Amino acid sequence: MEPPKEVPGADPYCELCGKMENLLKCGRCRSSFYCCKEHQVQDWTKHKRVCRKEADRQPDGDTPAQTPRAPPDGTGTKELITGPAAGSNNAKRNGQTRSHPQKLATEYIVPCMNEHGICVVDNFLGEETGLHILEDVRALHQTGRFTDGQLVSQRSDSSRDIRGDKITWIEGREPGCEKIAFLTSRMDDLVRHCNGKMGNYRINGRTKAMVACYPGNGTGYVRHVDNPNGDGRCVTCIYYLNKDWDAKEHGGLLRIFPEGKAQFADIEPKFDRLLFFWSDRRNPHEVQPAYATRYAITVWYFDADERARAKEKYLTGAGEKGVKVELNKPSEPS
Q1: Do 195 and 152 contact (CB within 8 A), yes or no?
Q2: Is-contact 324 208, C-beta < 8 A?
Q3: Angle between helix 127-142 and 178-194 (nearest 10)
Q4: How many angstroms separate the CA atoms of 45 and 81, rounded?
Q5: Which of the two residues, 322 and 79, has the higher pLDDT score?
Q6: pLDDT band at 220 (very low <50, low <70, confident <90, very high)
Q7: Mean pLDDT across the stretch 199-220?
Q8: Which of 68, 102, 121, 227 could bridge across to 47 with cysteines, CB 3.0–4.6 Å?
Q9: In the prediction, which pLDDT does 27 show?
Q10: What is the rounded average pLDDT for all residues in the chain?
Q11: pTM of the complete model
Q12: What are the Fe2OG dioxygenase domain coordinates in residue numbering (predicted)?
């Protein structure tokens, strides 16, 4: 290994432990970093596939005794790796596309997902509609229907140390959930227009909507993968409902560690923000401790072929994640 050079737009970090000081660079691929030789050796099993591909692109790469690379396990650059629709500069454009889901889907979401595997759309439904959805969610929360978030493999109370959210599952036909149903129908509209163009997926349904609340007492969700075992979920879609959110004060960032990239994406849970990302091992992610009440609504879209294989192997997950909801017909403009 050798001392790292400056990497434009990225802060190097140890691929195994996340340490950012006194790093050495992998001498073969020259794109991964480690704090010591021992961590390089420990990470080699995961890194070797990517390392060899990177080395093939380097005309004069050195070949060390051991070389490395895996999904990042620590910190990287505080950079939101999304396309042009994220951010206030495009708020007006995004607002205009609320009535044109096909254009938003094909001209922005599809290329952004295919390039980055992560896509942010701000000002998705507009403030008035977003506030109505927030009212529905708060009313649900007040009824006491939320329960502790569960893990697919649940053992006693182990999940309390892993995830601190309270959740409930909504199909959309429940009384008082009409605006949540409208939200999921608009999500479905976008995904329908993306279908067949986003990755190699043929999407034929989704889960119910998981309405989640972090109560603001410093709870979060440790780093995890939504679909590590091929249960059929291919796209995670999250809608945020948090007015005037200040990440410096309130925390609650969603931090995504894209596989094979020496940088992470910090997503603030801003009001009326819609987020897409691949559900599989390409996007390990965590919810950092939240110090204010944090609401989000998540649905997972199923790939038809993977879902069929999962059913054959009984890998359908647990609870509502295993319940398939057909995609709604195109929603009427409102």
Answers
A1: no
A2: no
A3: 120
A4: 27
A5: 322
A6: very high
A7: 94
A8: 68
A9: 81
A10: 78
A11: 0.69
A12: 205-303
Residue 320: pLDDT band with limits 50, 70, 90:
low
Q: Kindly list the strands in the beta sheet with 285-290, ordered across the sheet, starting from the edge strand earlier in the chain.
A: 219-224, 285-290, 254-256, 265-267
Q: Could you say which DSSP state residue 78 is in?
A: B
Indicate whether 240 pLDDT > 90. Answer: yes
206-97-334 Cα angle (round to 5): 75
CB 187 within 8 A of CB 142: no
220 burial class (0-12, 13-18, 19+ CB within 10 angstroms)?
Answer: buried
CA–CA separation, 84 and 102 (whole Å): 17
Residues 298, 302, 306, 310, CA torsion sign: positive
Average pLDDT over residues 151-163: 51
Candidates 93, 98, 25; CA nearest to 55 is 25
pLDDT at 315: 57
What's the token pair of residue 16? 């195994």
Q: Are 183 and 295 in contact (CB under 8 A)?
A: no
pLDDT for res 19: 66
DSSP 286-328: EEEEESS-EEEEEEEEEEHHHHHHHHHHT---SGGGG--BPPP
Structure tokens, 299: 């649905």
Q: Mapping DSSP to helix (H, G, I), strand (E, B) and coil, where does residue 205 land?
A: strand
One-letter amino acid identity for 92? K
Distance CA 161, CA 163 (A): 6
At position 302, the amino acid (one-letter code) is F
Q: Which of 269, 265, 171 is nearest to 220 (CA)?
A: 269
DSSP label at 143? T
The encoded tokens of residue 102 equal 């096909």
